[in-house]
Specification:
Elements: H1 17-34, H2 43-50, H3 55-62, H4 66-71, E1 80-82, H5 90-95, E2 106-110, H6 123-132, E3 138-142, E4 145-147, E5 162-164, E6 169-171, H7 183-186, E7 192-194, H8 205-209, E8 217-219, H9 230-239, E9 246-248, H10 256-262, E10 270-274, H11 285-296, E11 306-311, H12 321-324, H13 329-332, E12 336-339, E13 341-350, E14 353-361, E15 371-374, E16 380-384, H14 391-400, E17 406-408, H15 416-425, E18 430-432
Parallel strand pairs: 1-2, 2-3, 3-5, 4-6, 5-7, 7-8, 8-9, 9-10, 10-16, 16-17, 17-18
Antiparallel strand pairs: 11-14, 12-15, 13-14
Helix pairs in contact: 9-10, 14-15
Length: about 450
């Protein structure tokens, strides 16, 4: 006798066709509901998207519709206006003036020196910037022409804390007065000044710049006229630069005397030095090593007990040649601190120069010695491609640069053993050299 099995009362499995059909319909409806047009987003969402765009993109979007035209003028989008994605001519730049706001804190732009007519800034431009951005803190102007006889430093906004004229060309005919005259009074809050690749910069401007009361960062790399006269550097560093922390002197024709002047800046923490590229070549390593050995045999006016310092008076730069822009151990050993007594023992006149001979009396009892402390806070030192910098600099820095954290001696005449010895004494300092594995 067969017994019929009753139907199960348990529910059907969740994979049934009906439920699958319901879920597919729900997903389809959900997809249709999420297909929104960009204009359906709220203003807050759109502003959050627009803040990642460059000013040129905001200008293009403003032409799409009335709503985008209003949104792109929101002041929160123009706190920092950076136009450097591509060169922008002055007439195009004037179109963006309507977007600048009193809240604009940073304005950056880059011109094109190929077209002088379209890359010459006018006094009207500076007047508009001062009027529209009365709280401007950062002004970056790169690769523009500036007529220094018509546009004075007092035409720049007085509120800025960072000013960059990198790569700009300037016409300035007044040789008896620096272009930066009264800059220390006009920009009392300036903390950063960048004059990289400004061929028109002359050394006597250092006197005015050194008076800026809050200046912390000064970049003069590729200012090739900087080494024309040591007297201005000496006066500027002796009486000014009271707050300077970062100094970039790469690719300048400075020698030991000028660097020695800057070494007296007590607040300096970062110093960048590099031999000008025009004084380097692509010769074979053997030829370069031979040239370095020859350079090392040149007198650097220093030994264990005597030191001679040149007092330069009215030299032309050409008379110095290659030796003139070679920084040596003498400049590096002026950094940090030392214990000695120096006494002038003789001075005499030689053709075209006066030499002062100083005697250094190293005392056994250090309590009686005078400590000469230069750059006690130096943390970063870059000195690249100078063949007259040798292991003597490493020995001095290991003993006297107590706060040093980073050292770059690439392209100098230091040896592998000298680098290893420095590492063993200063294992907390990161040192970069030509012997690093690539």
């Amino acid at each position: 006798m067969k017994i019929k099995r009753s139907k199960s009362l348990s529910p059907e499995p969740s994979s049934s066709r009906d439920i699958k059909r319901i879920k597919l319909e729900e997903i389809a409806n959900l997809n249709r509901s999420t297909s929104l047009h960009i204009l359906e987003f709220s203003d807050d969402v759109l502003l959050n998207i627009l803040k990642y765009l460059y000013p040129q993109d905001l200008m293009a979007i403003s032409l799409c519709c009335q709503r985008f035209a209003q949104l792109t003028q929101d002041r929160t989008l123009w706190r920092r206006a950076d136009f450097r994605t591509k060169p922008i001519y002055l007439e195009d730049l004037n179109q963006y003036m309507k977007f600048l706001q009193p809240i604009t804190m940073s304005l950056a732009m880059r011109g094109n020196l190929i077209s002088r007519e379209h890359s010459s800034l006018t006094q009207r431009f500076f007047n508009n910037v001062k009027t529209l951005c009365d709280q401007l803190k950062e002004l970056i102007i790169e690769e523009y022409y500036i007529n220094g006889d018509k546009i004075h430093i007092t035409d720049f906004p007085c509120t800025i804390e960072k000013l960059s004229l990198e790569g700009c060309k300037m016409n300035y005919l007044q040789s008896n007065k620096s272009y930066f005259f009264k800059m220390d009074l006009h920009m009392p809050n300036l903390t950063c000044l960048i004059l990289s690749n400004c061929e028109w910069f002359t050394p006597h401007s250092l006197l005015v710049i050194s008076k800026i009361p809050k200046l912390k960062e000064l970049r003069l790399n590729s200012c090739h006229r900087l080494g024309e006269c040591v007297a201005y550097a000496s006066l500027a560093t002796r009486f000014g630069f009271k707050t300077l922390e970062i100094l970039d002197l790469r690719d300048t024709a400075l020698g030991d005397s000028e660097v020695g002047c800057f070494s007296s800046t007590k607040t300096l923490t970062h110093l960048y030095l590099e031999c000008p590229s025009t004084w380097r070549n692509d010769e074979s390593p053997e030829v370069i090593q031979h040239r370095q050995q020859q350079a090392l045999r040149l007198p650097i006016f220093e030994d264990g007990n005597l030191a001679q310092f040149l007092v330069e008076d009215g030299f032309s730069f050409e008379n110095y040649g290659f030796q003139r822009c070679l920084i040596s151990d003498r400049a590096i050993c002026a950094l940090g601190s030392d214990i000695c007594e120096r006494e002038g023992v003789n001075s005499f006149l030689a053709p075209q120069r006066r030499i002062i001979i100083l005697r250094e009396d190293i005392r056994e009892d250090r309590r009686e010695a005078r400590r000469i402390s230069n750059n006690p806070n130096l943390k970063t030192l870059v000195v690249r491609n100078y063949p007259r910098v040798t292991n003597s600099s490493l020995i001095h820095l290991a003993l006297n640069a107590s706060r040093l954290e980073y050292l770059d001696v690439t392209g100098t005449s230091v040896t592998r053993d000298g680098v290893e010895s420095f590492k063993s004494q200063k294992n907390n300092v990161k040192i970069v050299s030509s012997f690093d594995e690539t």
